[in-house]
Amino acid sequence: MRLWGSFGGGRDMAVDLGTANTLVFIRGRGIVLFEPSVVAISEETGRVHAVGAEAKRMIGRTPASIRATRPLRHGVIADFEVTEEMLRHFITRAGGSRFAFARVVLCVPSGITDVERRAVDEATRAAGARSVYLIEEPMAAAIGAGLPVADAVASMVGGTTEVAVISLGGMVVWESIRVGGYEMDDAIVDYVKNSHKVLIGQETAEAAKLEVGSAWPQDDSAETTVAGRDLVSGLLRRVTISADDVRRALEPPVGRIVAAVKDTLERTPPELAADVGERGIVLAGGGALLRGLDEKLRTEIGLPVQIADSPLTCVAEGAGRSLDELETLDRAAKAQRRSRSRSRR
Questions:
Q1: 142-174 b/e with 16+ CB inside 10 Å = b?
Q2: Is the Cβ–Cβ distance between 294 and 311 less than 8 Å?
Q3: What pTM did the predictor assign?
Q4: What distance in Å separates the CA atoms of residue 319 and residue 214, rounded to the nearest whole number?
Q5: How many other C-beta atoms can be found within 10 angstroms of the C-beta atom of residue 80?
Q6: Distance separating alpha carbons of residues 193 and 228, to the nearest angstrom
Q7: Helix or strand or coil: residue 191?
Q8: What whole-number distance in Å separates Cα of residue 278 and Cα of residue 272?
Q9: What is the number of H-type helices and E-type strands within the chain?
Q10: Where are the alpha helices (H) located in 6-79, listed in sequence order?
Q11: CA-CA distance, 164 to 319, in Å (whole number)?
């Protein structure tokens, strides 16, 4: 979930409130904060102990009285109150507490439900916004990647959770799947547990993914060592896993991404499909950084695939550029809701 706020004194602040990380961008200064979207809370008092990188270091290491949690899953709010606290904290750390902001452009997944829309709207207003505007994440990513979204030609943008074909300023077809970095980490945890009878933590799995993970064969001689609890003896045990092991572990979530892209292309009108065939697909978001994902898609789908220049920030940058088009955003959101209502009938 990504949001941009317009603050007093003519300064605009952008907050990319994502499942994994939160980025705060202030116009004229750039990105001033990049922290994990994690909060550590006291179970007894409800008081926030830590937010961001400090809280992430507590995951799996806290006493029973403290809970380290990620309040967002798949880009939407799973814990309303904790998300509100986290949002306030990041805005304050970035210097936003000195400004009373009136408008927020909130970037949401294309598959978000009406209940989830209301939740993110309420959390943003509770953090201080007077008006909230929504923009679909694929649209923001396409704008941030510099694609010609306003032209009468198709642009296709994809990530680990969102795939869409965009033309004339709107999404023509789209697919939203609940697959992201954490699902990939969980897949590695399950693989090590089933193959080696060792239970590792999600942070350890993430480190292995970053070190040797890929969606397409790279250097299969690469390997890494992970430590966890032996499920038979209950003692600490270290095991070595190869790049090939990690790639096999990631096959199910990567397969779902490939299937989502294929499904979106199958539902694309012929004229726009011809445009996509010529222009290809642009990958955005943190998942685009998984080694070999572009080559995997290129091989499976047979289209040109490229990674956005700045995949981690292009969604926030695109949402920021939409600040000057708030009325257009409002009309587009209403049209999108009407389209969803007709498709459900």
A1: bbbbebebeeebbbbbbbbbbbbbbbeeebbbb
A2: no
A3: 0.82
A4: 29
A5: 14
A6: 9
A7: helix
A8: 10
A9: 11, 19
A10: 53-56
A11: 16
- 82 close to 64: Cβ distance less than 8 angstroms: no
d(CA 185, CA 206): 5
The structure tokens listed for 339 are 């389209």
Q: How far apart are CA 73 and CA 31, in angstroms?
A: 23
Cβ neighbours for 76, distance < 8 A, ≥ 6 positions apart: 1, 108, 109, 112, 116, 119, 120
CA–CA dist 146, 140 (Å, integer):
10
Q: What are the pLDDT tens digits along the chain (345 aa)? A: 555 444 444 456 677 777 888 877 776 677 778 888 899 998 888 888 899 989 888 877 777 788 888 888 766 778 888 888 888 888 777 765 545 555 777 777 777 778 878 887 887 777 777 777 788 888 888 988 888 888 888 888 877 678 899 988 888 998 888 777 788 999 999 999 999 999 999 889 999 999 999 999 987 689 999 999 999 999 999 999 999 999 999 999 999 999 999 999 999 999 899 999 888 999 988 888 899 999 999 999 999 999 998 888 888 888 778 777 766 666 666 665 565 555 545
At 267 the three-state DSSP class reads coil
| Of residues 26, 337, 187, the one with CA closest to residue 329 | 337
7, β-bridge pairs: none
Instruction: Name residue 144's beta-bridge partners.
Output: none
User: How far is residue 228's CA from residue 191's CA, in Å, rounded to a whole number?
Assistant: 13
249's tokens: 């572990």
52 touches 22 (CB < 8 A): yes
What one-character-per-residue DSSP string does 98-115 give? G----EEEEEE-TT--HH
